[in-house]
Amino acid sequence: MNWEVVIGLETHAQLQTKSKIFSGSSIAFGAAPNVQANAVDIALPGVLPVLNREAVVCAIKFGLAVGAKIAPRSIFARKNYFYPDLPKGYQISQFEIPVVSGGGLAITVGSGATATEKFVQLTRAHLEEDAGKSLHEDFHGRTGIDLNRAGTPLLEIVTEPDMRSSAEAVAYARTLHALVQWIGICDGNMQEGSFRCDANVSVRPMGQKELGTRREIKNLNSFRFMQQAIDFEVQWQINEIEEGRAIQQATVLFDPDTGETRSMRSKEDAHDYRYFPDPDLLPLEIGDDWIAEVGGGLPELPQAMQQRFAGELGLSAYDAATLTASREMAAYFEAALASAGRENAKPVANWVMGELAARLNKEGLGIVASPLSAQQLAGVVRRIADNTISNKIARDVFDALWAGEGKDADAVIEAKGWKQITDTGAIEALVDEVLAANAKSVEEYRAGKEKAFNALVGQAMKATRGKANPQQVTDLLKKKLGG
Fold first, then answer.
1. What is the pLDDT of residues 108-137, one digit of tens each?
2. In terms of Cα–Cα distance, which of 167, 176, 87 is closest to 134?
């Protein structure tokens, strides 16, 4: 039987506020256990929550960025369940009326000629508080409770069940991850738990409209683990059904060591949480003026920037998407372009995506930590464009600038004596010497061996330590050899 995979994602993005969503406690990562949990966070009797305005601003930013509806009036609810790291015995969340509804994300699955486009619909995004954390290691068989995270502001972003493969799920998660960082509402640090995904996975016979029974894979904190977990879960469900066993709705965990998912508990439905409006919090009201104010502070969004790069600069869709993979990379490219000139858009893009990206990756650096400034890279591109240096010498200039051996490309070229030889008379004399010294290669070329010509070009470039203009060398050799 042919099976269709159905996937929906729920993502918890920790919002970049200075304090928690309902208290003034800090949310800085790495503090000693329980030092960032005040009376509100640990639910002492008589305390009342106060909504953090900045968390609402983050939600509005996200809603605008994905083309969603911002609710003029939304309410907070109590989600009731009992767990040691949930001090109140309930979590403050939103249920019936979330702050953000609808919208969606355009994603690209794959790359190159096989890349496909897809639009993933969003169901909702709602504000809620995080729970604390149970610590099971180094406690001699006991469990420790750290309430520093309790009350940390989250935006839970829920998709429709639109994805049909692990590749689509990962492409969506990567796109969302980039967007929340781009608009400045989440730092995206998956290792620290700032961006966590749950995948609802089910399978059904191809052509069937009714959804299969889903299992939710919790707390996927890397894109690689997400793909592995979904692929394993899909195959497991198919095997179970084909062997005559029914799928039971459940919450499961992924074990990276075994590459398998394992059941954690039966999956609760909404009614199990006994949601009801939180009596301690007034309805959240968001007027048009507030939305307009927040919208005015949004940066140009990735998709709009991609279209601009393609339409105004003539870059390919792939180049435009790569250069907007992060706001920092886009800013670096635009700064380099401003210095190099728009006529050099493609060369600048090639250097940013090629030599620069490779070196940053090799040394484990982000683009904001690049030893080579955008203006320095632009200087290299300008000197290639005006034939001051060849592409080969340009890489040497790049290396020198990276190592801090000069303030700009011109200074390095001058100090190293790397200026390209473009004088036709000088190059012609050089070519004559090379032809005279390599009679065997000349004979082989005239006998039809193309490799012999490349050898002659190599000899000419070697004689000038790569400083001769390669195109002039090639043209003169062909002229003198009658080719």
1. 998 777 889 999 999 999 999 999 998 887
2. 87
User: pTM for the complete prediction?
Assistant: 0.85
Whole-angstrom distance, CA of residue 384 vs CA of residue 410: 11
Helix axes 288-296, 53-65, angle to 10 degrees: 70
pLDDT at 422: 63
Indicate the residue type of 426.
A
Distance of alpha carbon 57 from alpha carbon 293, whole angstroms:
10
Handedness of CA 282, 287, 289, 292 (dihedral sign): positive
Q: How confident is the model at residue 174 (pLDDT cuts 50, 70, 90)?
A: very high
CB 224 within 8 A of CB 197: no
Instruction: Work out the average pLDDT over 372-399.
Output: 94
Task: Pull the structure tokens for residue 254.
Answer: 């992924």
Sign of CA dihedral 145, 148, 149, 150: positive
3-state secondary structure of 14: strand
pLDDT band (50, 70, 90) for residue 20: very high
DSSP symbols for 29-79: TTPPTTSS--TTTTT-TT------HHHHHHHHHHHHHTT-EEPSEE--EEE
Positive or negative: CA dihedral 333, 339, 342, 347: negative
